[in-house]
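Notes from the 1:1 (GR / supervisor)

We went over the backlog. Supervisor wanted to see one worked example end to end before approving the batch request, so GR pasted a single chain during the call. The sequence is below; no edits were made to it. Supervisor asked that the structure be written out right there so they could see what the output format looks like.
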Amino acid sequence: MTKKNKRSGFINWSKSYSGQKFYTSILFLIIPVGLLVLFTFIPAANMIGYSFQERDQFGVNPEFVGLKNYKTIFTNPDYFITFKNSLYYLAGSFIQQALALLLASILCSKIRAKGLFKGILFFPYLMNGVAVSIIFQRFFLKGQKGLSPEGTLNSVLGLFGLDPVMWLDPARPWLANCCLVFVSVWRYIGFDIIMYIGAIQSINSDLYEASDLDGANPWQRFRYIVFPSIKPIISLQLILAVKGAISVFEIPYIITSGNYGTSTFVIKTIETAFKKKQVGLASAMAVVLLIIIIIVTLIQKYFFRENDDRPAKGKQRKGAKR
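Structure output shown during the call:
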């Protein structure tokens, strides 16, 4: 084929429907892809480069230090040990997913005023995170600074003759972290409920009718119909929950400012960058956090993929035996 024929063929293709569709798609993608590269990939690449340097927030006289920043993160207990507080949020995220799935299943059944209950449960997610944190700060403490047992919760307990509890006590960091996890669950469970409700309602009603004819109880219906049908949504929600547990920032930063043993890895990263002015070390911490989130996501995706492939592999083995 000559160059002239190739050129005429390309022109004819560009004038066809498929060619115009291709060019239209490219034109629509130029701006979002350009913004994604400009504000995400380029800053991420710069952050990775900064993680191998010793530099301040202005980048004056940066010095290449190799893996020194990463060595500091994993050898200095003041930095990496803050990940232990993420375990509280990780446990809370699994409790949150279980409660959301239970409530979604109940709200998808035939109960009265379920629309009202959906709105009530979803309302906390619509609230601003800063407002939620300030509300619960007054809930546990009286005043914005300092320890005080005279918060709203203790006032309610006093009405029943109970002694006040120091909820945010530095001597009991586990209790303070549990309080913050409760706030996080209350704040985000509405989103999970709505996601699960949408997934459950998308299941074919014929499956429910068949299960009723077979005499299946509610647990069997959930185990063999609901759970397998919404497994992709459960996988997505678990990935988001783990990511949120590892990178939690807003609630502990506003309520306790990372005090009382509630500091997280993200709070420590912010303090390192803007208070200690060690941008290189903070960039290395951000890279470590990114790697951990990617690893956890891949593990979860592999786990759910393996579960999906097992029945198919079993069928292949049975077919081979035949």
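Supervisor's comment: The radius of gyration is 26 Å.
Batch request approved.
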